[in-house]
Design brief:
Blueprint: H1 4-16, E1 54-65, H2 68-85, E2 90-91, E3 98-102, E4 105-111, E5 121-122, H3 123-140, E6 144-152, E7 155-164, E8 170-171, E9 174-175, E10 197-204, E11 211-221, H4 224-238, E12 249-253, E13 259-265, H5 275-291, E14 296-304, E15 307-316
Antiparallel strand pairs: 1-6, 2-5, 3-4, 4-7, 6-7, 8-9, 10-11, 11-14, 12-13, 13-15, 14-15
Length: 325
């Protein structure tokens, strides 16, 4: 794959020559959630949709494959890191590039906006760009190295590169295996372990020992790609919330609507379930289930300091189809 500098320069040239909207990626079209919400209220945040004027230029290196599951786990790690800064946080012109490494994948991102231009790189543009990049891989039927440049009103703002870097083995504090699954979509097989894992498991957040995720794996088989993509869309939707904001209800689907998620915070709980808690859960839980080869429908609850503060599930959508079925 081309180096970041060369690829970034190529994107800037291509963006400068952009003259017609059809050269940009079509907006992601995902309907609003229609899941029943346990609290009786509507989901506070919806699936992120491209703002007016947003565009993405994507280049895939189809001859440089990456295991599909590792693509999603690395994307989860990147969106988790970005969201902590805030949905509309601006990465100023001239800021150094950032790097996220997880599961043998390296994600490099940087601003390419100039100081005086109106549109600067915002965190939300990085998240939109990441969703477009992975959606294009899915459409091509090949998960691989790739780049995406973000634009606002055809003006370049940011650049993301995803590359295979063997040896980067940790996401969310849980070690996982690298490169064990083919990058092509037909290789998205369900777990080789029994799908009825009814014993309740627990994950203690390594960054906050008071936050505990308890979960039960049961129900239908679900490919790891369907599971991880559902977690990614939950993460991206939760990225719109402030770190300390109460997450009352959040629900939605992955891009193919093969999986659905729901999260609910207890209004009477103290402390309350926050969007930072939700994003931590959507980082740690998928990493654990992938490590244990136990991807599938799962119910989970969240505790803080020994008190239950919320819960939810990831399940197959009856109107979608998973490769594991």
């Amino acid at each position: 794959m081309r180096t970041s500098i060369i690829a970034c320069a190529a994107f800037a040239v291509a963006a400068a020559a952009l003259s017609v909207p059809t050269q940009r990626r079509e907006p992601l079209q995902l309907g609003a959630p229609v899941l029943p919400l346990t609290g009786g209220s509507s989901s506070h945040y919806r699936v992120p949709k491209d703002p007016p004027g947003f565009g993405a230029l994507i280049d895939l290196a189809l001859t440089q494959p990456i295991a599909a599951e590792n693509v999603y786990l690395a994307a989860l790690a990147a969106v988790h890191e970005w969201a902590f800064l805030g949905w509309r946080h601006v990465i100023p012109a001239g800021a150094p590039r950032g790097t996220v490494r997880a599961n043998g994948v390296e994600i490099i991102y940087r601003t390419i906006a100039v100081k005086d231009q109106q549109s600067q790189l915002e965190i939300r543009y990085l998240i939109y760009g990441m969703l477009h990049l992975i959606d294009e891989m899915r459409k091509q039927g090949r998960y691989c190295e790739g780049t995406v440049g973000t634009l606002m009103e055809r003006v370049p703002t940011g650049f993301i590169e995803m590359a295979h870097r063997p040896g980067r083995r940790v996401v969310g504090g849980d070690p996982v295996n690298n490169d064990t699954v083919p990058a092509t979509i037909p290789g998205n097989v369900p777990s080789s372990k029994p799908q009825s894992l009814s014993a309740r498991q627990r994950i203690v957040d390594p960054k906050d020992k008071n936050f505990v995720i308890k979960y039960e794996r049961h129900g239908d088989a679900m490919s790891c790609v369907d599971f991880l993509s559902t977690a990614l869309f939950a993460m991206a939707t939760a990225a719109q919330g402030r770190n300390d904001e109460f997450c009352e209800d959040l629900a939605g689907f992955n891009e193919q609507r093969t999986g659905m998620y729901q999260l609910h915070g207890l209004d009477e709980a103290r402390p309350r379930l926050t969007y930072e808690n939700v994003r931590r859960a959507m980082l740690l839980l998928p990493a654990r289930l992938f490590r244990d080869q136990a991807c599938g429908e799962v119910n989970y609850s969240f505790e803080y300091g020994g008190s239950v503060i919320g819960g939810g599930f990831i399940r197959l959508n009856d109107y979608g189809r998973s490769e594991a079925r």
